[in-house]
Design a protein that fits this description.
By secondary structure, the chain is of the alpha/beta class. It contains nine helices and seven strands; from the N terminus they run E-H-H-H-H-E-E-H-H-E-E-E-H-H-E-H.
Amino acid sequence: MIAVISLEAPSVPLIEQLIGDNRMPHLAALQRTGENVHLASPFLDGSVYSTLYTGHHVSEHGIYSLFTWSPSEQRLRLSYELMPDETLFRRLDRAGKRVLAIDPPEHPFQEMANGVVVSGCQFRSRVHLAKWSRPRNVSGELSKLLGKTPRGEETFGQPSERHLLHLRKILMQAPGRLAGAVERLLNEKATDVLWVHMVRIHLAGHQFFNPACVGLNG
């Protein structure tokens, strides 16, 4: 089985520091037995997901942001609405590989013949991580196991203290929900490719990271 685990936009120096301080022993063990590969980032940060899911450069797929301009329609469209049907998961599925993908952000709804895709497991949000699954019943089964999926939305502007405390609670629960989903689905379904996104790191960076504190001690 091939396992792809995305830490979803962490600070690399911080991860290295935590590994050095022995605060991430499991990741350190994976690092010792594997190989570190530095990938060239896309030209535009907003094209990361589309590039990842299609395997094509932004110059080929043309999706450069969460909201992308559609010249033919003369309006903005959500990125996953414009994504080519020939995604990585679809190609693997058609090749007969059994994919288990959990929480791929901003991914289009796609039917799977051999695999499972679940979105909105750790938390759900209007656009970044909508709640859906293929097959459709998987999402309901996980809700019975893990409880109702909490909603975690970003605040574009100055968030309130109440919002941040609510969001912190949701993000602290997210790893446990993800681990529970992975364990249940791996036990139930034969899998060739496991693809997992730890999306909470991305959202936490947007809402809790203070650039003014970079380089300060204490």
